[in-house]
Amino acid sequence: MTASTETRAGDRPATQPPAGRRSPNGHQKGRVKASKPSVRLGLRMRRNWQLYAMLALPLIWLAIFAYWPMYGVIIAFKDYNVVSGIWGSPWAGFKHFDRFIESYQFWKLIRNTVYLHVYELVATFPLPIILALCLNTIRKKWFSRSAQLITYAPHFISTVVVVGLVVVLTNPNTGVANKFIGLFGFGPVDIMGDAGMFRHIYVWSGAWQTMGFAAIIYLAALTSVPPELHEAAIVDGASRLRRMWHIDLPAIVPVAVILLILNIGSILSVGFEKVLLMQNNLNLDTAEVIDTYVYKIGLASAVPQFSYATAIGLFRSVIGLVLLVLANTFARRFAKSSLW
Amino acid sequence: MTTAGTLPPDEQRLAVGSPIQDTRGDKIALACIYTALGLFCLAVLYPLVYVISASVSNTSKVSAGEVWLWPVGFTLDAYKAIFDYDAIVSSFGNSVYYAVAGAVVATILTLLAAYPLSRKGLPGKGLIMALFVFTMMFSGGLIPTYLVVDQLGLLNTRWAMILPTALAVWNVIITRTYFMVTIPEELVEAGKVDGCSDFGFFWRIVLPLSKPIIAVNLLFYAVAQWNSFFNALIYLTNEHLFPLQVVLRQILIQSRVDPSQMPDTSKLAQLKELQQQLKYSLIVIGMIPPLLVYPFVQKHFVKGAMIGSLKG
């Protein structure tokens, strides 16, 4: 009895204002709409000229730093040289793409990139969901608050520092990780210099850093679960785990699907900065991915091959875009939730 | 935090006055959840605490593996060594400059983009929005962007650190959603009736109402700028312009210590001794600024991210 009245009292402030706002709003909108067809587009644009003026700076930025580089992508089909510039350089067709696909690096790069990304996805995608479900179930406010405060924190530490942390902690001579291994009677291991360990280190240090922050978006989705559902389930004798599984989890699924689509779209672009920072001569066998290769042959080498590097980068972007569209189509058909 | 992390209202109520007790299964489940969360928090905290302890411990004790959690043989030598290494001090200053300037420029651009796009019935709004969103899915890539920065003559200038990353589309979306939620259409209409121009309305009404989202943008961009290292790596070769992250990479990851950065050569031998130590203290120095602003960001950013993700 008390419970139901309280629910109603609690509900009222939540539903009332939108309803109250909606009626005058809808009224006004109706008026504006009615007068709209008579106002020509040109006039409407002129009336809003100040808004366009505000947009000018961001649009100029967008044109220079986002769309000008997209135009520059045509050097992937040319033999670019600095003297003739982007437009003046001779056309080369698909020469650079052919060269990349036939190069001995090709399959190694694809394998390393896809493997690293899929491993990361499978290992770290469910973690924030589990974390959010747990945090949402907890009753003690101070506990869930401090758990959130702690788990979000690594997100704000830079990649350089995180990799530095890993390097220092796994140092074969002085690192504490090796001291732990030593406790179980194993000799010191040069973890960073081991090509076989690279993926594990990359993925799990990533989980350490991002898991807490990634849970935020799921926690947000969980706030939309109406408390009545939980009440009804409790009355029906559903256990805590059952409620997590049948009430909380379904609320998360649409968000999870969207994040999954975005993730699949970027399957060929792993966390490039971090991979580059973690690379050394000993682990290159597994640590060389497409993006770091582009950087090396395009900018870091003594004889930069701009066109070739751009072609490889474009190859990756196009595949990423195609995968994004495919994943989205798939999700729209089967999961009823999609990006567009 | 908002209600997300706290308990659903029903459970609050039940916890206070309900006769329904937890079943044994529920108690076990809860215990497991608490244990798992506790363990995870420990796993997150341990490396951080260890590094702080190691940075104030005696070098030989750290190398010998005597430090597990708390400092052994307390000393601040590692921190003193930092101030003797010129590159760290100057790059710290550069990083502060990039973070502040970058955040201001980026926030202004974001607000200017987000407000018009939040207004109903602006002709061409959909197209402009699409132009922004498309850049999230497809970009020119590394080399073409580098060539643009080169052609603009920005290489080896401070602008190269600030301009190419001056706008994050994700922030525009979040800020725009914030405006759509907090600035009701009636307010815009009322402003128009009173003869307020769009500029005036933005300046006098919208900005004062948007302090939280402005703060989020500033802090978000500042932290991103502070943490970024790749732009410096490709656009800068002049080491007087290097941000802290580049120097951190040299010392922490590449173990490269440049003797010419030590004006006082008598301290050189001491520095080599302290090199391992220096790494721990440098990690702490690199972590602290973002972690200091983090509690402020957390409160607002989480809210902003939620609004943006749910309604955007």
Ends of chain B: how far apart? 20 Å
From the 3D structure, determine the CATH topology of the largest domain in chain B: MetI-like fold
Strand content of chain B: under 5%
Largest sheet of chain A: none
- Please give the CATH architecture of the largest domain in chain B: Orthogonal Bundle
The CATH topology assignment of the largest domain in chain A is: MetI-like fold
How much is the average pLDDT of chain B?
80
Helix-residue proportion of chain A: over 70%
- SS-based class of chain A: mainly alpha
| Helical content class of chain B | over 70%
Number of domains of chain A: 2
Description:
The complex is a heterodimer of chains A (340) and B (312). With 340 residues, chain A is mainly α. Chain A has two domains: 1-38; 97-334, MetI-like (MetI-like fold, Orthogonal Bundle). Chain A has helices spanning 2-35, 41-47, 49-72, 85-88, 95-102, 106-124, 126-137, 141-152, 159-169, 176-183, 198-222, 227-235, 240-265, 272-278, 284-287, 290-300, 306-334. In chain A, helix 5 (95-102) crosses helix 17 (306-334), helix 6 (106-124) packs across helix 11 and helix 9 packs parallel to helix 14 (272-278). Chain A is globular. In chain A, 35% of the residues are buried. The model of chain A is unreliable at 1-35 (pLDDT under 50). With 312 residues, chain B is mostly helical. Chain B has two domains: 22-75, no CATH class; 85-311, MetI-like (MetI-like fold, Orthogonal Bundle). Helix content of chain B is 72%, strand content 0%. Chain B is built from 15 helices and no strands. Chain B starts with 8 loop residues before the first helix and ends with a helix. Residues 1-7 and 12-19 of chain B have low confidence and may be disordered.
Set out the fold topology:
The complex is a heterodimer of chains A (340) and B (312).
Chain A (H helix, E strand, L loop, with lengths): L1 H34 L5 H7 L1 H24 L12 H4 L6 H8 L3 H19 L1 H12 L3 H12 L6 H11 L6 H8 L14 H25 L4 H9 L4 H26 L6 H7 L5 H4 L2 H11 L5 H29 L6
Helix pairs in contact in A: 5-17, 6-11, 7-11, 8-11, 9-14, 11-13, 13-17, 16-17
Chain B lengths: L8 H9 L6 H32 L3 H5 L13 H8 L1 H33 L6 H13 L4 H10 L7 H4 L6 H14 L2 H9 L4 H12 L1 H17 L2 H6 L8 H10 L14 H44 L1
